[in-house]
Amino acid sequence: MRPGSIFYFLGQAWQSLLRNRLLSFATVSTVAISILILGFALLLALNAGELMEHLESDVEIVAYLDQDLTSSQITDIKQELKAIPGVQSVTFFSRDRALEKLQGKFGGEDYDLKDTLGENPLPHSYEVKARDPHTVPQIAEQIEKIDGIYKVNYGQGVVERLFKVTRWVRLISIVFIVLLVVAAVFLIATTIRLAIFARRKEIYLMKLIGSTDWFIRWPFFMEGVFLGACGGLISILILAAGYGSLIKRVDTLFFLPLVTDPGILTNVYLGLLAGGALLGIIGTWVSLNRFLDV
Amino acid sequence: MLVQFYNVSKIYPNGVKALDDISLKIDRGEFLFLMGPSGAGKSTLVKMLFREELPTRGQIFLAARSIVRMKRGEVPKLRRNMGIIFQDFKLLENKTVHENVAFAMEVVGAKSREIKERVPEVINLVGLKGKEKSFPGELSGGEQQRVGIARALANRPLLLIADEPTGNLDIDTSHEIMELLFGINRKGTTVIMATHARELVKNAGKRVVMLENGKVAADNPSGEAIL
Q1: Looking at CA atoms only, how far is residue B96 from chain A in angstroms?
Q2: B108 at A interface, C-beta within 8 A
């Protein structure tokens, strides 16, 4: 592309936008609606992911110790636990605190559990967090083998089911979004094809006069990028306004871990804007090549 | 020699044999009528010149360059050596006369100074001075074809290709268009014109190539023996 040509291309693109107002409007609307649905699904998937992570991160292993251990034995066990690959943190939880917790849960202020039980029957324990929650069952298995461990508990059965659910939720989110992207490309390509079809005579003529393919393509691409970005922008404004007010309401109503990090949200919105422009280019590319084959 | 066809055949994918072993030479500066009934292969032959169609067999040369072996990227260059005139004019309805002619120069990347100089020149040449700002819809058929001719001439082609240029015009207008084309030819541009209007060819005294069933049925330097 010659430097001087860029103004010519921009001028052509602008003229075509104005001349085909209805089709331009149709393209912008199509992109806006596609991106809106896509963005909605993306935010949904993002929040589902956040929720899944939240649930998974709650999974931890509680290793109860034998009653008759010396304090040095207890420290040794801590070292052994820390040495297991994949373990992130090990926290000691004394039998006294365990009783306090039990008191809080069941006794309240009405009666003293210590009096009822006579002595504290609870063992010391370690709370073990895994770096990757998915490795919890394997780590638990290794902890069981350590001497001085009386029992290991991590919500066996429930955890496996939770992981199954989170895996499906993630998979469905991805499939759903891929399908939406494909649908958006088709929809936008069809709309742009209409716009190009209206100008097929002009393209044919340009080809016969001796235009290069790129000379013909540039204005269409500029138009496609512009229309795609416009559609993207409209959908982002709607999405941001809607999601913003949702965050305000939900935060005061439920305890749901919504994604509110402005950095992440900005990336999502910028991504959608770029996506709109990209859809404009892809749609133009797919639709235009057929008409250039003269 | 400007154009050479060597044993050119064209069989379309549906099995129709449009051209059958055509060999033909056209000199620089020549005016050639391509005649024959509908379906004789005139259009196919013309389209091969600007490579809208490729032959199934044979070779075609323009100024000693093979059109057949040419890469896709070189086709624009080939076409810039030619001006094409269509039966249905193919003017852009939303552009004025001036813009339609300028369009041909813009799309091959001509400088705006060149365009400003050349466009009035060719509009003047085809006799449309004063109609620069008119839109095609406001012009008669003959005037529209003059715009088409001006557009074809804008890039100073070596070869002017006219496919039934008078097909949509009445006989008087057709004769005016012919006079214009003869004049352009006299100034040195080679012209190839496909037509089945015998009355235009009859007294022209130009070379006539007669196609029938995809073959050259006759080739006469002044058209006499044929008509």
Answers
A1: 14
A2: yes
Q: Show which of A154, A184, A212 is a domain's final residue.
A: A154
Contacts of A216 in chain B (CB under 8 A): 107
What does the pLDDT look like over A121-161, one tens digit per residue? 888 999 998 888 888 888 888 888 888 888 888 887 888 88
Give the pair of three-digit tokens for residue B88: 């249905």
Q: Is A19 in Cβ contact with B107 (below 8 Å)?
A: no
pLDDT at A252: 62
Distance CA B20, CA A72 (A): 103
Name the band, by pLDDT with cuts 50, 70 and 90, for residue B25: very high
Domain holding B182, by residue range, is 30-43+76-220
The CATH number of whichever domain residue B156 belongs to comes to 3.40.50.300
Residues of B with CB below 8 A from A215's CB? 107, 109
Taking contacts as CB-CB distances below 8 angstroms, the residues of chain B near A5 are: 109
- Confidence bin at A108 (pLDDT 50/70/90): low
Q: Which two tokens stand for residue A52?
A: 């899944």
Q: Do B107 and A209 make contact, defined as CB atoms within 8 angstroms?
A: yes
Question: Which one has a higher pLDDT value, A130 or B157?
Answer: B157
Q: Which of A20, A208, A211 is the best mutation test for B, with the most CBs of B within 10 A?
A: A208
User: Hey, what amino acid is at A215?
Assistant: F
Q: Which of A2, A19, A206 has the CB atom closest to B107's CB atom? A: A206
Is there a contact between A64 and A125 (Cβ–Cβ < 8 Å)?
Answer: yes
State the pLDDT confidence band at A253, using cuts at 50, 70 and 90. low
Instruction: Centre a 10 Å sphere on the Cβ of residue B64 and count the other Cβ atoms it contains.
Output: 8
CATH code where residue A64 lies: 3.30.70.3040
Q: Which residue is closest to B52 within chain A, CA to CA?
A: A294
pLDDT recorded at residue A9: 86
How are beta strands B3-11 and A125-130 bridged, if at all? unpaired
**A282 shares a domain with A231:** yes
User: Of all residues in chain B, what percent carry a pLDDT higher than 70?
Assistant: 98
The pLDDT of residue B123 is 96
Range of the domain at A85: 60-154
* Residue carrying structure tokens 């992109």: A31
Q: A208 vs B77: CB contact, 8 Å cut-off?
A: no
**Residues A50, A91 contacting (CB under 8 angstroms):** no
Return the percentage of chain A with pLDDT > 90, whole number. 11
* Residue among B72, B26, B23, B4 nearest B185 (CA): B26
Chain B contact present for A8, CB below 8 A: yes
Per-residue pLDDT averaged across B47-62, rounded?
95
B77 at A interface, C-beta within 8 A: yes
Minimal Cβ distance to A294: which of B52, B103, B104 = B52
Q: In chain A, what residues touch B79 (CB-CB under 8 Å)?
A: 207-210
Q: Give residue for tokens 């070779």.
A: B59
